[in-house]
Amino acid sequence: MDYPQIIEYLNGHGSSDQQKAVEQWIQEDPKHQAVFEKVKKIWLDAASEEEKEAIDVPKAWQNVAGHLQKEKSRIIYRKRSWAGLAAVLLLGVLTYVSRDLWMTNPMQTVVAENGIRPTEVKLSDGSTVWLNQNSQLIFPKKFKGKERKVILEGEAYFDVQRNEEKAFKISANRTEIEVLGTSFDVMAYPDSIGVRVQVASGRVGFYSATDSIYLVKDEEGFFDKTQNTLSKTEQRLKNKTSWKTKILVFEDASIKEVITLLEQIYQVSIRMENENIGRCRFNSTFDKEDLNTILETIGTLFGLEVDQKTNNEYILNGQGCPINQ
What we know:
The protein is of the alpha+beta class. It is 35% helix and 34% strand.
């Protein structure tokens, strides 16, 4: 279930079938229920305390009571505890209140699809987020209340404006990341085995349902979804954020590894006509260079011919390197 569909449900939009589809999804799995509650909490928290107080709760109660009155004959014959009935009534009131809160501070969704350039998102607090391909960010139009909360699906680089009175929180694939103001990368694709956080500056809190760790510059945290564990190490992947920075650092890397990374970052196909090319070892750093410059450098160094077939298709020809080189 996509986050936008959940938000539409909370807002009371969509057809009856769409509303029922969300309710069925929630009931299918306790994990779905947990996701729904997290989105709902962020949605409610998006409004300020003043706006919450301005909601006409008694009127909302009357609306709920009116609906219940129509169903009175059915309710009489149901064996339901007072606690259960109270929960139903409270849910009804919250639904009406939530709709009013949504109207005062709507949530927005930005989706980044395939592309070479990251999608840049400016938030109301001055923070900036760069989304990698196949990623989406859900956030309120304005941050209100005591926290700044967003939802991430995919990968993003965050440069968070410092505010010691309002923590910045990211919900991402069964985890939560909390900062006051710092720069860091979060990778949390739905089909990945876990969530990875790499810190560029400042201090980051990284939480699961059962554990927590704290990360500083050049440290990496990983949440393993299968083992339900959090771990912390020094950053090993030098090019982890190169999709955003376009800074590439290769230290004794094989050309095969280099090509794999270039294909991901520049969204192209690079084919080696000779497998020995992939065995060559490469040391170099590129700072925001275009792809043609990088390939020409590799070609000159190893005596390779670079043939560009189309805008996104390249072929490398040459003898390559012996197995032991």
